[in-house]
Amino acid sequence: MGRIAALVLAFAAACAAPPEVRNTRFVVGGMVCHSCEEGICAAVRKLDGVEACTADHAAGAAEVRHDPARAPAAAIADTITKLGYTAAPAAAPAAP
Ligand SMILES: [Cu+2]
């Protein structure tokens, strides 16, 4: 019992610690075609800390693989917004 608990704790710690890079889904408004997707991802990929970007105008969403320490979700949303679209992390907690 104690040994299993220790193993579970060690596993949880290993999972929680290293992964700096994560995927964040953004709700993006204003995309109407494939060029919009390309334009958004071209700009987002230029950010330091962004590893990958895919956007889907039909779904109105973009998925970005990034290091939040170097490229926070807010900075990515800001980059998309400056291109004339609306953007917000899909998993953003509701405002209090
Ligand atoms: Cu377009």
Structural descriptors:
96 residues; alpha+beta; Alpha-Beta Plaits; 4-stranded antiparallel sheet; 3 helices; globular; binds copper (II) ion; Cation transporter; signal; HMA_dom_sf; metal ion binding; HMA_dom
CATH architecture: 2-Layer Sandwich
Task: Give the proportion of residues in helices.
Answer: 25-40%
Please, what is the average pLDDT? 86
The total domain count is 1
- The structure class reads alpha+beta
Tell me which ligands are bound. Answer: copper (II) ion
CATH class: Alpha Beta
Structure description:
The protein is α+β, with helices and mostly antiparallel strands. The chain has one domain: Alpha-Beta Plaits. Helix content is 39%, strand content 26%. It contains three helices and four strands; from the N terminus they run αβαββαβ. The protein has helices at 2-16, 34-45, 73-82, and strands at 22-29, 50-56, 61-66, 86-89. It has a four-stranded antiparallel β-sheet. The longest helix is centred in the N-terminal third of the chain and has 15 residues, at 2-16. The radius of gyration is 17 Å and the shape is globular. It starts with a helix and ends in a 7-residue tail after the last strand.
